[in-house]
UniProtKB/TrEMBL annotation:
One of its GO terms (cellular component) is plasma membrane. Belongs to the GSP E family. This is Bacterial type II secretion system protein E domain-containing protein. InterPro entries: AAA+_ATPase, P-loop_NTPase, T2SS/T4SS_dom, T2SS_E_N_sf, T2SS_GspE_N.
Length: 565
């Protein structure tokens, strides 16, 4: 959303409002607890057209009213919903080979660069308003239930021939499977769950880390869809009593190739399937748009320049560890270095990087793959996960012999990673000699830009921030007073499905290894001692990074406490 202060400057400089009128409007917006842009229109201070014209004049772009503009769905749906919501941008048409996009805040030049690569053509930028974007984004929310009912109606009541009926049902099944996959991709879904129960089957999507119900099917359709998914995944369709794993690739309506990792398990009422959706071409990830900023970002960028050693990213499953490693690899990916990875699975393709997929059927494990990679003359090695003693030992020895090794661990925070490596029987002096930096992280949901509103900090929120000495000290250190402090939340709207959130971002804890830290490892010090030493050196914890993002209006205190406590 366009910053209120910048909007005030634009309207005064372009003589759309006087200083006095602007002051009154700003006060009214604060009083109503709504963005200035929305307040100006709601109170008839400016028409939507005049407001759009003013912003367009300032930035040198034309204003487009998305509530009146015809939208080309083939172009529109090529931007995933999660990106459109978080960046407040939509594509609405194409003219003379140039894709036309409308954005609320044109200072976000990075997203334009991303879209030029995505569409592989030039972009024509238009200015639009928050209300227009919210209206346009409703296109993503086409009800999957209504679409499903429409598909069921495609079987004609007068189809009497058995062959015709069989063909119609088979075609319907394929359409239902495609409907589920495409709707999931449009909504930024990471996992699709199709679960059988006694009288029905339930389809659920995990979006921004949270599962929600999307569709009910009868058990006959569930069985047919399961068979379709098994065929696509090259699984045995006659096996219903054993767990099976597989994968397939589909091309979405937006033209994007999506790799789908499939897990099927037998349950009391039938087979349950979970499908993980993975973009096959790699996204335009940077450490900054993942949420790593300020001093922590500088520490990471400086540290990855080391030609050897280990960079570890730690956190629970689904916390974005692999994505962070991909962002680091993109910074390191130059023509004068050889980068090789061993992954399970390969989540995103990176041009110029040799990527190897774990395959237990051929005994290609992380450890075996790592042994093979070392003989491929690599400069940089990425191991998807250090799961066992063997992989840990080979990884540490690779770092000791002149390679830069990137990997992940399952630990709660950065300091705990060092004792964890010792538990894997890696010698303390080897850990101390090789580990350069440890990044711990979690993912928090981002407040929806379309329904974001501020409020004066509540007594409960004050209590949470004041009851802990470390939190109080952190607030004091960054110069924040809780008196009349304004925080933000999403009120819920159609754009975010009434959740108040749209998209996710990381909160981080970056721990640098120095001589004192290395000595603590050699002495078998526990994680509390390591954490205390890191804190003395200025390490910001994940909780503190989360609180900073709360103060910046990125997320809510409730969300940070949910994942970081």
């Amino acid at each position: 959303m366009l910053d209120d202060a910048l909007l005030q400057k634009i309207l005064i400089e372009k003589a759309y409002l006087s200083q006095e009128d602007m002051l009154q409007s700003a006060q009214l917006a604060t009083q109503d607890d709504v963005p200035l842009q929305q307040s100006l229109i709601n109170n008839n201070v400016l028409t939507k057209a005049l407001l759009g014209q003013a912003v367009g004049e300032y930035f040198g772009y034309q204003y487009v009213d998305l509530q009146k503009q015809k939208v080309d769905d083939d172009i529109f749906f090529q931007i995933p919903e999660s990106m459109a919501v978080s960046q407040q941008i939509v594509a609405f048409g194409k003219a003379n080979g140039t894709v036309q996009v409308a954005i609320v805040d044109p200072t976000k030049t990075e997203i334009i660069d991303v879209l030029e690569k995505r569409f592989d053509t030039s972009i024509q930028v238009f200015i639009t308003l928050v209300q227009d974007i919210a209206y346009a984004l409703k296109r993503y929310k086409k009800d999957i239930k209504a679409a499903y009912e429409s598909l069921l109606d495609t079987i004609s009541d007068d189809t009497t021939e058995d062959i015709e009926a069989d063909d119609a049902v088979e075609g319907l099944t394929a359409h239902v499977a495609n409907l589920i996959l495409n709707n999931a991709e449009r909504n930024g879904t990471s996992d699709i769950h199709i679960e059988p129960y006694e009288r029905k089957s339930l389809v659920r999507f995990r979006v921004d880390g949270v599962l929600s119900d999307r569709l009910e099917m009868d058990l006959d359709m569930h069985s047919r869809v399961m068979t379709r998914i098994k065929v696509l995944s090259r699984m045995r369709t006659d096996e219903h009593r054993a767990a099976q794993d597989g994968k397939f690739r589909f091309v979405s309506d937006a033209g994007e190739a999506i790799d789908v990792r499939v897990s099927v398990v037998p349950t009391k009422y039938g087979e349950n399937v979970v499908m993980r959706l993975l973009s096959s071409h790699g996204r335009q990830f940077t450490l900054t748009n993942l949420g790593l900023v300020g001093h922590d970002l500088e520490k990471v960028k400086e540290n990855i320049k080391n030609p050897h050693g280990m960079i570890l990213v730690t956190g629970p499953t689904g916390s974005g560890k692999t994505t962070t490693l991909y962002a680091v690899m993109k910074l390191l990916n130059k023509r004068d270095v050889n980068i090789a990875t061993i992954e399970d699975p390969i989540e995103y393709d990176i041009s110029g990087v040799t990527q190897i997929q774990v395959n237990t059927k051929t005994n290609l494990t992380f450890a075996q793959g790592l042994r093979s990679i070392v003989r491929q003359d690599p400069d940089i090695i990425m191991v998807g996960e250090i799961r066992d003693e063997e992989t840990a030992g080979i990884g540490v020895n690779s770092a000791l012999t002149g390679h830069l090794v990137l990997s992940t661990l399952h630990t709660n925070d950065a300091p705990t990673s060092l004792p964890r490596l010792l538990d894997m029987q890696v010698e303390p002096f080897l850990v101390a000699s090789t580990v350069n930096i440890i990044i711990a992280q979690r993912l928090v949901r981002v407040i929806c830009a379309s329904c974001k509103a501020s409020h004066v900090i509540t007594d409960q929120e004050k209590k949470i921030l004041q009851d802990n000495g470390e939190r109080e000290a952190f607030l004091s250190r960054i110069g924040v007073s809780l008196d009349n402090l304004r925080l933000y939340k999403g009120n819920g709207c159609k754009v975010c499905g009434d959740t108040g959130y749209a998209g996710r971002i990381g909160i981080f804890e970056v721990m640098i290894m120095d001589e004192q830290m290395r000595q603590l490892v050699v002495n078998h010090s526990d994680s509390d001692s390591i954490k205390a030493a890191a804190r003395q050196k200025g390490m910001t914890t994940m909780l503190e990074d989360g609180i900073r993002k709360v103060l910046d209006g990125v997320t809510t205190l409730e969300e940070v406490l949910r994942v970081a406590m």
